[in-house]
C-alpha cells in the first residue's frame, strides 16, 4: 500500500483495484472502513465498466452476449503505479486477455488521488484506445465509519443532503432496479438512518438530484463530506450486518432495469467515447468541515 500525506491527512492506496484503503487525520483517527470480511471485505472499490448489476449478469454488445459480475472487473484488477509525488498518486490499467473476454473494448483507465489541505480529490480518466465507439459506466464506493458509534450500539447515523425532497429508485429485483421513484423523508435535508433504511438495498438518487452528501457527528457537524457532479449517487450499508459504516457512492451509471434485454449501449446512464476520445471526472472527499459549512 502506497501512502501520501500532508499536514492534515495521510491516505493509503493499494495497487489492487487502485483502491483507497485508509484516510487518517493528523491525530491518526481513521475515517475509512477497514474491510472486515465478515461484514464487507472492501474499503472503496472502483466500479468499472459497469455500476451495480446486469440483469442475469449478462450484457449484449453488437448482438453478442457477455457475462460480467456486479460492479465490473476494475475492483479486482491489479493496477500499475504510474506516478507518485508528495501529495498525489496515479494508478492505471488497460485491457488485457481476460477483460476482453467479458468487455470487448480497448481502453486505458487511470485513477489519481490528490491531497489539498483536508480534501482528497479522486479523479477518473477513461480513454478509448480502440477503433470503435466504446461504452462504459464508472463509479466510486467509499465506505465511511459512522462517527461516535459504539460497538455495542445498533447501526444508526445522520446524513445531510443538499436536497430537502429527494426521490429514490429501488434496486431490489435480483440486484437490478425499477424505474419508479418514491420520496425520501428528510428533516430539511437531514436524513436519519438505521439498518432498516437499507432493507431494499441502496438508496439510489438519479437525475442529478444530489451533489453533496455529508456524514454528521453527534454535534451535527460534517465529519466527512462527498461532493460530486455525477448524475447519480448511491447510499448503502449491508442489511443484516449491523455494519458501522455507510457508503456514499458517486455514479456515472446505474444497474440494469429489471428484465432488461437490450443492448449494452442503450442502458440507462450509459457513457460513450469515440476512438481516441477520453472522459474525465472527479469527486472530492472532505474530512471535517468544508468551506461552505
Automatic annotation (TrEMBL):
Co-factor(s): Ca(2+)
A GO MF label: carbohydrate binding
Protein name (record): Aldose 1-epimerase
Any one GO biological process: carbohydrate metabolic process
Keyword Cell inner membrane recorded: no
Pfam family, one: Aldose_epim
Enzyme nomenclature, EC number: 5.1.3.3
Keyword Protein transport: no
Subunit structure of this chain's protein: Monomer.
Key words of the record: Calcium, Isomerase
Source organism, top-level taxon: Bacteria
